[in-house]
């Protein structure tokens, strides 16, 4: 999937309990004029959101409620577009784009990083956030690990998640994927560090800080966020919602509401409870990231 990717895989197994039952598939047609999916969704009253089950981006909470940064944004926007209900369809991250294209769900609502590889397969809303990386390290950070170059210098054992962008960031500084410990999610990463199977787990700053805080770890801590680089240039991780290529009407209508929320400050108010701050807000566009 390329390096410019915020990973989203955690919790997929648990979310699988929900299944993909419910509304029948809604296919878009009329691709020549931007598709008619929005009209179909309004008629049906429900939109199916593909998620990959990672706190805080999209997950089922302890009360069985569908929530997270991306779903909460989607709930507001789709209601304003005349679609009052959202239905989660859990899957693994690597299945999100194939699932969208095969109409298993209508929109990817998983905070997916926008990059040229993905833009060749789907169309994106403008990003609703941008993100830097952070590490989970042992308490006190004994190996003084603050970026990927430090991992190389200290010959530290690195762990990260399946399909995570952090794999590409590490490879960019010379760490072989075969030398990494690839794990299913950030909780597994925290446990690997606590148990000494890895010196560091790499992920996004919000994900890393959330799992350490929620677990109240006594043996591990999260580092300060830092910017990852590829080929000497900062790699911008910015995520948004993905749509099938023919559904430009739906994407454009979604963008109109998203920009209203950005301008009013409502977007930040919605995502702040999930650990997002003004630092993660962005005015980047999908067009910029796709190119």
From TrEMBL:
<protein>
    <submittedName>
        <fullName>Ectoine/hydroxyectoine ABC transporter substrate-binding protein EhuB</fullName>
    </submittedName>
</protein>
<dbReference type="GO" id="GO:0051470">
    <property type="term" value="P:ectoine transmembrane transport"/>
</dbReference>
<dbReference type="InterPro" id="IPR006311">
    <property type="entry name" value="TAT_signal"/>
</dbReference>
<dbReference type="Pfam" id="PF00497">
    <property type="entry name" value="SBP_bac_3"/>
</dbReference>
<feature type="domain" description="Solute-binding protein family 3/N-terminal">
    <location>
        <begin position="46"/>
        <end position="278"/>
    </location>
</feature>
<dbReference type="InterPro" id="IPR001638">
    <property type="entry name" value="Solute-binding_3/MltF_N"/>
</dbReference>
<keyword id="KW-0732">Signal</keyword>
<dbReference type="GO" id="GO:0033294">
    <property type="term" value="F:ectoine binding"/>
</dbReference>
<dbReference type="InterPro" id="IPR014337">
    <property type="entry name" value="Ectoine_EhuB"/>
</dbReference>
